[in-house]
């Protein structure tokens, strides 16, 4: 039973997450040769003020709302 954890910044829509889990579930089941109902996807979502890369908080680096409408 594959359990897939996705860590990402908050801000994606329910529709984006639904499309993602449908796609990742189908591909995981196909590649791992398991039933789709055995695949579990968990989202760990973080505020941008609690995420940093290259020494800078994402809330400062990217600004408010970054990524909410897809890859900006």
UniProtKB/TrEMBL annotation:
Active-site positions on this chain: 2
Assigned keywords, A-Z: Isomerase
Record GO terms (molecular function): isomerase activity
The enzyme's E.C. designation: 5.3.2.-
Domain 4-oxalocrotonate tautomerase-like: residue ranges: 2-56
Keyword presence, Transmembrane: no
Pfam family, one: Tautomerase
Family: Belongs to the 4-oxalocrotonate tautomerase family.
Protein's UniProt name: Tautomerase
């Amino acid at each position: 039973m594959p359990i897939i954890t996705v860590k990402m910044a908050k801000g994606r829509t329910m529709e984006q997450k639904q499309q993602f889990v449908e796609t990742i579930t189908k591909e995981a089941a196909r590649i791992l040769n398991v039933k789709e109902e055995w695949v579990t996807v968990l989202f760990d979502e973080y505020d941008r003020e609690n995420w940093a890369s290259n020494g800078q908080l994402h809330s400062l680096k990217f600004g408010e709302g970054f990524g909410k409408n897809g890859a900006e």
